[in-house]
Design goal:
Helix content is about 5%, strand content about 50%. The chain is mostly beta strands and about 170 residues long.
């Protein structure tokens, strides 16, 4: 496992949530959709003991509702336990290209949210996964939770203008 010094932007994909078995495998809480997509990235950046390190994935699979992975050079359960809670990220250039109308969450964070009538609601702070649809957490004069439903609540996402136009009552 090598230490990474690059300043290129990292995109968080999950975290190591525990250990699996006795041979150093780790449980992974993945933010990807589907959750096992995280193992398609063969090289991860892991923030271990406060420092980003490059780790190589030796193997990985979906295990029930979670994902488990084996990292090259990590073959002991006790050593793997030291990675519990560590963030997993990849460099932006490693991300797959998306189809038109699809967005990575990091692209939506920080965008201005405006109603179709021109009322500014605030900025997208983060998103939540609910199962039915993702939810924009918009912080402005107050916090609002808006369903990310293109064609319904979300009228337009304009990454160049850094804004999202929504059909939403500002009093709600």
């Amino acid at each position: 496992m090598a230490e990474q010094n690059s300043t290129e932007e990292l995109i968080s994909l999950g975290k190591i949530s525990g250990v699996f078995g006795v041979k150093g495998w780790v449980k992974v809480h993945s933010y990807t959709d589907p959750r096992e997509k995280i193992i398609d990235y063969r090289h991860w950046q892991v923030k271990h003991q406060g420092r980003w390190q490059t780790v190589e994935l030796a193997d990985g699979k979906r295990q029930g509702k979670t994902v488990v992975a084996q990292l090259v050079g990590l073959d002991d359960r006790n050593e793997a336990e030291l990675y519990r809670g560590d963030e997993i990220a990849v460099f932006r250039h490693q991300l797959d290209d998306l189809q038109n109308g699809e967005y990575y969450w990091h692209q939506l964070q920080g965008l201005k949210v405006i109603t179709r009538e021109g009322v500014e609601l605030g900025l997208v702070d983060h998103l939540l996964e609910t199962g039915a649809n993702d939810v924009l957490v918009v912080k402005g004069d107050r916090e609002r939770l808006l369903p990310f439903t293109p064609g319904h609540t979300v009228i337009d996402v304009d990454l160049d203008a850094q804004q999202i136009i929504v059909d939403w009552d500002p009093d709600f």
